[in-house]
């Protein structure tokens, strides 16, 4: 809506300048023209065309400038603005004595020309100096902060904003990640995500209604816990769905999209956006299980094959155990034989540990034989000798 309005304003301005510009033409040109109204229409059309071209150029410059502003760190943006203001202030202070000098004739045109050149020169100079040395201004505002010193020196990179997807809000694990400090920076929740959870809360499906209410309750708790750190983005993007609008928001703000949706994470990576897949993060934080490791697991259900049983590690990783179908409900020692990593999770394969059982059985049998032999020897020794 903004771009068409800008183009319309440029076209109207150009047309108005052409309509009124006929009075600025030399008198001889206007007198030689047989139809002054036709000339006025030509100038109006020409001015409108020039205004359209200028509007298109201004539109492209505006888009480029807004893209730079959205992706630019806040400290750099503020320092550039301060540098520009200081540069313009210095330029006008230096120009003040020159503008007070009396000039006559054509020399008087030097004043506006000198004003334009000096303002442009000192404005660009101040902005460039602030870009190079502007981060040191953080030391003036908070000299005792170690983080401010590191950011000012360029050693520490400011944390990017985290944009939450509907899936991670409903999942609930985002609360623990924020509490543990795994997510830094501002937490942004798009208006479209809240609308989607509201639709789920009003759904006739019991499961969807429970998910929506759980997500809204989580947002309320996060608001009470973190306050201003949780930001509600009210920008309305044009898109087919919530995922498309979240991708646009991540592209405009330069933030990191936090999601548990595998397909959405893949699309974000294709578009070269910053993304954090919660499922991949959970898998990366799981302890590694190597072949040969011994586990003590409870077989909870049967597997796909006729002889397989299934158990689970403490982190929820599924362990498929061979020859354990008949041991469902029992806890047995298991030896890991291999692991399979998939995009959706990890699967571990194992077998029952039979060596310990066999060793225990053999040890029990040999111990029983030894005890029987000892008892026999004792009986023989204690038997009285027949005097006959």
Can you characterise this structure?
The protein has 388 residues and is an alpha/beta fold. 59% of the residues lie in helices and 14% in strands. The strands form two sheets. The chain has a six-stranded mixed β-sheet with strand order 6-10-11-9-8-7. A five-stranded parallel β-sheet has the order 3-2-1-4-5.
Largest beta-sheet characterization: 6 strands, mixed
Q: Count the E strands.
A: 11
Mean pLDDT: 76
Strand order of the largest sheet: 6-10-11-9-8-7
Total number of helical segments?
Answer: 15
> Helix and strand string, N-terminal first?
HHHHHHHEHHEHHEHEHEHEEEEEEH
Helix content: 55-70%
- Kindly report the oligomeric state of this protein: single chain
How big is the Rg? 39 Å
Low-confidence stretches: 357-388
Shape: elongated
Strand % is 5-15%
Structural class: alpha/beta
N- to C-terminal distance? 129 Å
